[in-house]
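To: structure desk
From: M.T.
Subject: fold request, one chain
Message: Could you run this one when you get a chance? Sequence is below, nothing fancy, just the single chain.
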Amino acid sequence: MSTIRQEQVQQLLVEEISDMLRRDLKDPRLGFITVTGAQISRDLRHAKVFVSILGDESAQSESLAALTRAAGRIRGEFGRRARLRVAPEIIFRLDEAIEHGARIFTLLKQIEAESHTNESGSSESGGGDTTG
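Reply: Done. C-alpha cells follow.
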C-alpha cells in the first residue's frame, strides 16, 4: 500500500519526465515515447518508470537503451524540478500492458468474427432438412 507522498511523487515523476522527453531530450534514438506510470519505493529512493514506445522491437530496445543512458541526467533534472533532497534512482521499464490489451482486443474481435461466421453457416445448412 502506497502512502500519499509516494503517490504524489509518482504522479510528479510521470508529469515531469513526460515534459523532459517532449522538450529537453533531443536524442534521435528516442522514438515516440509515452510515460504510462511510475512506482516508487517507500523511502522515495528508487523508482521504476514505465514507458510505452511506438515501433518495432528493435526501435523499442534502442529507445529504452537511450533512456537508460539518460537516466542520470533525468534524475538530476527531476530532483531540481521536484525540489527533493534526494532524487530517486530511476529505472525505465517497457510497459507491455498496452500491447497486451491490444492483443486481447484483437483476439476478442477474431472470436466474434468466427462466431458470426459459424452462426450464419449453421442457419443456412440447417434450414433445408425436413424429414417427417
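Reply (cont.): DSSP finds four helices and three strands in the chain. Let me know if you need anything else for the meeting.
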